[in-house]
User: What shape does this take?
Amino acid sequence: MMVRVLFICLGNICRSPMAEAVFQKFVDDAGLTDKISVDSAGTSAYHVGEPAHPGTRRVLAHHDIPYDGRARQVNIEDTQNGKSYLIAMDSDNVAELNRRFGELPSLHRLLDFADHTSVHDVPDPYYSDNFDYVYRLVEDGCQGLLQTIRTNEAI
Ligand code: 4NP
Assistant: This one.
C-alpha cells in the first residue's frame, strides 16, 4: 500500500513545495518511489496556481533538486483520503488545520522529526527571505521523517 505524505504551509509557494521537493529526492534516492507518494498544499488560497517562490526555486536549483508543482489549497479530501502523514510547517498551520477539519491524528510538524535543531516551526521566508536557513531546517526534518516512516511502515 502507498504511504501518502502531504506537506502543508500557508501559501504553498515557499516552505511546503521545498519540503515536497527535498523529500521526493530522499524517497527516490532510497528506492522508495513506488511506496511513498509526496505532495504539498497551502492552508490559504492566496497563491493557488502559482509556481514556487523564486527563493525556493533558487535554493532547490542550487541543490540540483527539480520542482515544477503549482500551489493548491488543502481540502477535505486531503484529510479524509487515508493520507498517512500530514506534515505542517509550523504551529499556525496545525492550529488552522485543526480549526477547519477537527483533530487530525496523522497531523505533525515537520521539525518534530528533525534531529539537529531545537526549532519547532519552520519560519516563513516570504517576508524574511531566509531561504537558505529554511532549506537546512527542511532537510533536517525530511531526513528524520523518512527514517520514522521507514520504521513505522517497515519499508
Ligand atoms: P509559505 O510562505 O507559507 O511558506 O508558502 C508564504 C507565502 C505567501 C504568504 C505568506 C507565506 N502570503 O501572505 O501571501
Remarks:
- The two ends are 11 Å apart (CA to CA).
